[in-house]
Amino acid sequence: MTIVRQHGRLRFFIFAILTLMLAIGLGAGQAAAQDLLEKPAVPRKMADAEIRFVQAALAVDGSYEGPIDGNWSQKSQLAFVQTMRDQFGPGQIKLADLAQLSRRFRTALAGGRWEPVAPDGANLSYVLPLAVVGPLNRQDEIAHADSDGHLIVRTRAYDAEGVLALHNWLLDNALQPDPARRARLSDDMVTTAVLTDRTNTVYIRSLRHGQKYVTVIVQWTPQRAAEARLISGSIQPGVQAPLELPADGLLLKAIAALDGPSDPARPNVPSGSVPVATGFYVNNTDLVTSLAALSDCKALTLADGTRLRRLRIARVHGLALMTSPVRSASWVRLGGNVEAEPGQQVIALGFGTESPANLRPGRSHGRVQGDALIGNNGLRLSVTLPNPPGSGGAPVFLGDGRIAGVLLGRPADEPQAPAHVLPASRLTALLQRSNTLFDRAETQTDVAEGPGPIVPLFCK
Q: Which CATH number characterizes residue 349's domain?
């Protein structure tokens, strides 16, 4: 009996020691991760692949227009400081801040399926978002474009006379032409300008290869400016590596420290939070949501904590226009004047207390009952749709994929009343008055596939 008791006490003592050692180890690991994140961010001291990755992230953000080549220049540093202060405020730029920027950009790269492309015989390469653009059947050139013509990338070879004519054509058709400026032959020629239509921008880069000038022409509208900057900056001689962080690099370690211990069962949402509203991008930076979401919040954030800035409060419409430093690779298309008729089926794509586990919107089905005139606030649609907390601001679609309006909610004193939806025509009129760009295409991709243009919003 004495021996059994001694063995039991020994097992308990060993278990207690192991538990203590594990707790000390976890605490030390968390402290080391926090120390790493508090260090200043100094990109020029990082590996070339990490510098190239940061340059690409800055290009997508809009602060950097230069070569994405792994060489940290003064231009790179100025863009870096501007972006970090815009997104994280003044003060010392910490590795934690750069890790957040890099983590978002990794997500955007994966969503856009960015891959290096090296056209046969061209002796150059660049990166393309293969989820956005597809190949075009062209003679004498290699071309890719998105489905709406907002982004076109062409590669072809010119002789000396032809390449001069091409660059001079762009100079002559610039919004602000300079007759005295003429293109000159060199081994590396670059010309860029906004065209006279004030919508399209063109970037031309020609690299000499033997007796020919291999030329990449990137043309885009504002809707695809972020992708165009990354493509243009990535053009370089030879074959390039994918935009990836090295496995043993500082940035990947910082992202891992930022994420903490992985637990796939937990959603990537703020601790203890549920969405207070749904927002949807109408271009790559600006979102629409329900004004009611701001009633009890000092600020709204995305799931990763990114704070949104107010662009306009439209009380009559019941909407808030917000802008985000996190750029979206897709947005809801608002083309066509859709007039929903009574009896038509509608689908709302929004968030509620149950939906953020995979950060994808849930679907709610209902039917249009008719029009509702709400005092001085104008015409609304009366719709039989569920309206759980967090769904306000959800886009509402017809069965053919065209947007019918924005879910605003139902009267507070009538919980059983039909929900109110702001018609799409009033939304587009508001965006036009606010000088907010939006996609006028009528066709709609499957916006329920995440990550996408519809996002949960949280209260800060």
A: 2.40.10.120
